[in-house]
Amino acid sequence: MPKNTKENLLLAAVSEFAAHGYQATTVRSIVKRAGEKNLNSIVYYFGSKEELYKATLDFMFREAEKFREDIPDSLQKSFDAKTKLEMMIRFLCRAYYSIQNDLDRALYQLFIKEAGNPSPYFEEMVERHLKPPREFLCSLLREHLGPNISQQTIDDCEYSISGQILYGVLGRSLINKINPSHAPFEKYFEELAEHVVKFTMAGLEAYRGE
C-alpha cells in the first residue's frame, strides 16, 4: 500500500536523524530521502523541523509497543504478580533488542543517540513513555514482594532489572571492548529475555517475606 506524504516524511526523518543526529540533519536531506520535492512540506505536515523530530521520538516509543504479548486485558488481570513481572521483562527485552528490519535498526540507533546526547525534547518523551513503564514495573515488584518491603528496595530491584536490559544497549561499545567475542544481543534476544527472567526471579526470592 503506497505511503502518503506525511508518512514518507516521518520515515525519512527517522532514517536521517538516526544516521546524523538532530543538529546535523537538514530539512532538505529529509525531503530528499522522502522522495518529495517541496521543502515546505515539513512545515505543512509537522510545523517545523523541531516538531517533526518530536514526532519521530514519539513514533519510536509507540513502535516498541508492537512487542507486547497479544493477551486480552481481561485475561491479564487474572495473572499473578510473578507472571506479570515475567511478561514485562520479556516485553522490555524485545522492545530494546528485536531488530527485524531497517526501520527497527534506525529506531534503535535513534534511541542510542538520544540517550547518549539528549535533545531538548527527550525529557518530554521520558515523562510520556519511559516513566509510566517504570512505575508499572515498581508496582508489580511491590505486589510480588509484599507491603513490608521498603521503597528503596523496590527502586533497587527495578534498577537491577532495567540495568540488565539497558546495559547491552547503552554500553554496547564498552561490552565490545571488554568481551569482543560476545554475540550481539539482538541475535539471541529471546534467550536473553529468559535469562533475565530466571536471574531476576531467583534474586527476588531473597526478598520475599521480609
Descriptive overview:
The protein has 210 residues and is mostly helical. It has two domains: 5-56, Arc Repressor Mutant, subunit A; 62-204, Orthogonal Bundle (Tetracycline Repressor, domain 2). Helices cover 72% and strands 0% of the residues. The chain has eleven helices and no strands. The chain is elongated, with a radius of gyration of 20 Å. It starts with a helix and ends in a 6-residue tail after the last helix. The mean pLDDT is 90.
The separation of the N and C termini measures 56 Å
Helix count, per DSSP? 11
Residue runs with pLDDT of under 50 for 5 or more positions: none
The rounded Rg comes to 20 Å
The fraction of residues in strands falls at under 5%
In CATH, the architecture of the largest domain is Orthogonal Bundle
Structural class by sheet pairing and helices = mainly alpha
> Can you write the helix and strand succession as a string?
HHHHHHHHHHH
Quaternary state of this entry equals single chain
Determine the fraction of residues in helical runs and give it as a percent range: over 70%
**Main β sheet profile:** none
Total strands: the figure is: 0
Query: What do we call the CATH topology of the largest domain?
Result: Tetracycline Repressor, domain 2
